[in-house]
Amino acid sequence: MARILPISRPGRRGRGLSLxxxxxxxxxxxxxxxPLLAATELPPFPPSSEFRSLQLITLxxxxxxxxxxxxxxxxxxxxxxxxxxxxxxxxxxxxxIRQLAKVAASNSYDRREGIDRAARxxxxxxxQKLPAAQPTAGGPPRPQGGLNLISxxxx
Length: 155
What we know:
single chain, 155 residues, mainly alpha, 5 helices, 57% helix
């Protein structure tokens, strides 16, 4: 024998609460954005001298295959991995340095070449990209497309 379950509808109070909840949820993004944006000030970009010293220490690790420069290269690369302003390509190179800059039983060509490659591209990949200079407002107008045979400023 099939059992029939009654279908109940929410009362007036249930509908009012859901509407209030929806209004509250819709307004949360508007309330939460300004404090979040104010609190997320990024630290300054690391200076190029920091990348240059890491590059030189990494090359020393490759050349000498000893504990001191390899440990120092890994310890300098480690905090840069968590820097929020560095691009992913820079962090990939830093990851390679952390993985490859280890003392090996034999200082083979492949070991040296891997470490040297990461060290060579470090300063290029981790360079700060400056915004392009904006043209001055008083300069000549730039063409907007087409042939621009007749300049609108000249009659």
